[in-house]
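Appendix B. One record, verbatim.
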Amino acid sequence: MLAGVARPNVAAYEAGRRQPLFDSAVGLLEAAGAEILVEPPLTWSWTKGVRPYAVPSRLWRLAPEAALRQFAPGPTLWWSGPARTFDLSARPDRCRLYEIVLREGGPADIEDIVDGVLLCEAWPDLVLPRELVAAWAPLVSPGSAAHAPMAP
């Protein structure tokens, strides 16, 4: 067998009767053509200003169906005006929602809505507070301290 794992063991893994050792799991995944990616855990910090903003330790990717879905923010994110749904597959809606969630959201909101690659693409057009731009700039545009337009 390509993975070097005996068939009875594979059957036991599939049936949930056994858990593979790490090396066996890696062999099975590689034999199936999968890539193994190990990333450091995502941790969060907060800016120190009058209005604290959540700042991640790194960017992440969302599955396409999550990154480009319809999203109706609840009252913690959308607290003025009539209820609205954003189409994340439409860049103007995505940019507006990213501005809102980066300003108003906590870590769970940001992780649920923001895709790292799409954020980097939109970053130059987002209007965000200076403190937030300064905190996120090393993640979205390394080498450039202030790449996005800033709100007062």
